[in-house]
Amino acid sequence: MKPIQDTERFTLSKIISDDLKEYIIQNKLTTGDRLPSERELAANMDVSRVIIREALRSLEATGLVTIKQGEGAFVNTDDPQVIFQHLLHFWKMNNEKTEELLELRFLLEKAAIEQICQYPNAEQFEQLETLIQKMEQTEDPNDFQQYDAAFHTGLIEATQNSLFIQLADTIVKYFAEAPAIPFTQEEKNVTVKEHAVILQALKTGKLNQALTTLEKHLQRPRK
Fold this sequence. Notes:
- There is one protein chain.
- With about 220 residues, the chain is mostly helical.
- The protein folds into two domains: about 5-80, Winged helix-like DNA-binding domain superfamily/Winged helix DNA-binding domain (Arc Repressor Mutant, subunit A, Orthogonal Bundle); about 95-220, Up-down Bundle (Four Helix Bundle (Hemerythrin (Met), subunit A)), CATH 1.20.120.
- The chain has ten helices and two strands.
- A two-stranded antiparallel ribbon has the order 1-2.
- The protein is elongated, with a radius of gyration of 21 Å.
- The two termini are about 40 Å apart.
- About 25% of the residues are buried.
- The model is unreliable at about 5-10 (pLDDT under 50).
């Protein structure tokens, strides 16, 4: 860990949170391992203990750290969701090749679509249809992006595999948390249409059409 530069002080808490994640990875810390004390962290990072406390609370909110009153902050890697977020952070710090994450996302959604075609569920179809309708109706780019993410999450949830769902949810959130870029009307129409084609293909058991449309949908670049 290194001292924070003056030019970085506007994002101190976020910088320290990220630095602590990297510290956990580099030192191969696991559940129950104790982080350095607030005093040590403050000295190493050259910031106040208040800022350190904020960063630790942020990590606690994600589940990566457990804070015990009077004892300190301890690493928690038992929660699969935390592990996936941990791996995603490591990936971001080392290469962050978006195409790799898109490929993994496609493989996960591909498996989900194959299962949906094999075991169709009318209730799940209704939920996906509702999300498509919301995408058509909203004018808010943030809402549109959230409905888009929810549609893809809905595909994964059809597997009813908790580990599968948590991994996919972490990936979908990575893309959903990016600043919302206003869609052109053409992009919005194409996105909604592709979702509708995927859903209709699932309803009629047309696996190849669903997979082909999904792959094109995920690979289509934004303008």
